[in-house]
Amino acid sequence: KQEVTQIPAALSVPEGENLVLNCSFTDSAIYNLQWFRQDPGKGLTSLLLIQSSQREQTSGRLNASLDKSSGRSTLYIAASQPGDSATYLCAVRPNDYKLSFGAGTTVTVRA
Amino acid sequence: GAGVSQSPSNKVTEKGKDVELRCDPISGHTALYWYRQSLGQGLEFLIYFQGNSAPDKSGLPSDRFSAERTGGSVSTLTIQRTQQEDSAVYLCASSRSGGPSSTDTQYFGPGTRLTVL
Lengths: 111, 117
What we know:
The complex is a heterodimer. Helices cover 0% and strands 59% of the residues of chain A. By secondary structure, chain A is mostly beta strands. In chain A, strands 2, 4, 5, 9, 10 and 11 form a six-stranded mixed β-sheet that branches. In chain A, a hairpin with a 4-residue loop joins strand 7 and strand 8. Chain A is globular. The termini of chain A are far apart. By secondary structure, chain B is mostly beta strands. Chain B has no helices and eleven strands. In chain B, strands 2, 4, 5, 6, 9, 10 and 11 form a seven-stranded mixed β-sheet that branches. At the A-B interface, strand 4, strand 5, strand 9 and strand 10 of A face strand 4, strand 5 and strand 10 of B.
């Protein structure tokens, strides 16, 4: 069974600092890995999707890397802003359609 | 519509009552998924639809849970004889296609927060 772990569980940084969020998974047979953002009381917003054949994806201040062989992904958020405060979820899609989620990292960016 | 919508946004019910949760996927998306997010449990998969068929119901926690999809569009998740442990946020997602070979992004709705008293 695929298990997804996110470290740390919570993170608090001053505005302007770079954020590094880690995700690890136990089974490297995945189709893709997706990073989501969840705001309190809201659904999930997809941030980046990395296909299994890719090493990284970038969107604006966000960059996600994938090392499938070691079962790791890292989400980097450059120059954090208070609006980046949210819970960030990592999800892997094994060779079926179900997403397996980590428990998330709750980020607070202090102004 | 522009995104996945779910209704109601909040539902408070008494133990033992039945509830129905609705999901409207993005127009044209053939695949639809239900997930549950419980406090301290994270997100867990419940059921997957491809069109109106549900090839995988393995995540439904008990036979009190059922779901259907009609017209390849709207889906309803029904929970009978609700229990307090059913309290959670129920999230629906859709993707353009589904199945093992699909790599399409799953787009999530805002969820329905269910509270069973």
